[in-house]
Amino acid sequence: KTHCARNDHGGCGLLVGVKDNQIVQIKGDPDGYLNRGSTCYKGRVSADRLTHPDRLKSPLKRAGKRGEGKWQRISWEEALDETANNLLQIKEKYGAKAVGFGVGMPKGLEHFVLIRLANIFGSPNVIASQDVCHAPREVTGVHTCGFYPVADLHNPTNLILTWGSNPLATNEEGQICSLVFENIKKGAKLIVVDPRRTELAARADLWLQLIPGTGSALALGFLNVIIEESLYDKEFVDNYTYGFADLAEHVKQYTPEKVAEITSVPADLIRQAARMYAAAKPAALMWGNSVEHSVNVFDHTRSLVCLMAITGNLEVPGGNVNAHDPKIMGLGEFVKAKLIPTKAKEMISAYHGIIPRLMTVAPAYFRKAVLEGVPYPVRGYYGMCCNPLVNWADSKATYDAFMSLDFIAIAEIFMTPTAAMADIVFPAAHQYEMNDIGHYGLGHGIILARPKIVEPPEECWPDMKILNELGKRVSPPELWHDDYEEFLEDVVKPAGLTYQEFVAKGYLKGPDRFRSYLEKGFRTPTGKVELKLSVAEKFKLKPLPEYSGPPEEKDPEYPLILMSAKTPNYLLSSYRWVEKLRQREPHPYVDIHPETANAYGIKDGDNVVIETKYGEIVQVARITDIVLPQVISAAIGWWYPEGDAATQYEWRKSNFNMLTSISKLGKEFGTPNLKNIPCRIRKQ
Hints:
By secondary structure, the protein is of the alpha/beta class. It has 24 helices and 27 strands. The longest helix is centred in the first third of the chain and has 19 residues, at 76-94. The radius of gyration is 24 Å and the shape is globular.
């Protein structure tokens, strides 16, 4: 038994069959806390990631110019010593903050060991994708109601409102679709807010097909209806919210008719959906990653927390809850936060005035520091579980930044476009080849056991081991373990367990504590849910959520609207080399409405040039009416592992982020626009 990982955040309980140190079968565990026995195809074939003939199996040192794809094999001692020496040289010349420590989305315990390394080394700069993933929802929740409001699908709910969330294709930090359908079978209604007619939307009681990038306007329209029609929870609003009168006056301007013009969702449908959500008690709002993909993210997430609050759906079973951790080591202690007490003031992003409590650096600000020395020079980068050259907005800026760095080290299982830019490449062990803990630090109140299933290739190390050994070389060795697996013991020790005892249990869950505000209030400056932010002036934030227009100005030269959507076959830019997955989705497909395709003379299967004012790429046309005529939905994460290492595997050809820019950012999180980008298309 184990839990899936590095396929989104994972979380599905798995039964794994092994023979002669080879995985021969993977299926869902009927006792899985999150999945109840179901699992996706990507998870069932995930063992193929371990056995690919091109897998990295020894440390490599760059032999030619950066990015040429020429390598020499070196020993682990040489790789660690060279990396340590370069990082220490940069620290001596520029200071510790001149090194950025980078991590991507699939987090196990190694994510927090990396933060520990940065803290002990003295760098406040952990570079992460959180500007467009998870943190805006989490941090906005903390400022608005004092916690991160998680959809509670483990208790009966009367309605599930999925807002930019598609759990049938990707899991939302552990919100597995089996729990959604379990509630629907018991009678829960389903409302889907999504620009695309997904399989989930096709099953919904109501589907609101909005123009991408207009979600904040739609949420304000919901608030307008619920307040104007007195559908809100009066007792909760009167006793436990701050600023309701101001919010009520403010949202009068967002009538369903006005919002319909902005979003393309009919006014009657907005009213119907708002009434259904307000009437259902409890109702769970399952907000997805896509709400964080524009410069308007703070307004969007604020509006949704306000929506949860005024309907009385906060901290109730089957609503949106404050998930409490089990008895485990706290994050601050684990990452040695006390060793860097001035981190919040010294981070690159602090210079740009980001929202308090966001403790990672947005990639846009990291690259500005690298290329312009603002607010100070950054010259080194250590990265793992990430592929910035493809996944960060504005790939051209990423390439320029990585070309200009003094030193880059990457830990990977396969040579990627980003790893091809490195000076040192460490071969990493994969999920089934190491003991790990899942969901630590995610805010969902659970941790999951991920025990080792098979042994890794001889020279492939778990990221935790790489970081532990590197830490001994760049900082006081006594702050590190003799055996990296002691990190696992540290986490579960407060629960009175050894790691193996934790594995026998499978998972640990914190206590359910509903309506704790009745005794303690909310952990905000006013002690209430702040519909109007009391600290807005202090932190130079908007006191009330608003819709200030489309993320980017309309441009007649680019008449179509560009968006993207995740696929169930890959994890962002990962696993294009897994043959069974590639067979399912061999090309990057751009979804185009039949009317639009006809107007441009494009047929199904044609190569299509997609162009914004920032760049152009080529993808394969898929003619479908799942998108609106004015919208095209392009594939993300594409590069070609079968391509030439000297060109970093053709990362420019079909990569969505050749079409994005970091010239305009949301102030609160440093978020760029990934949705609602003016574009045009033509047949190649």
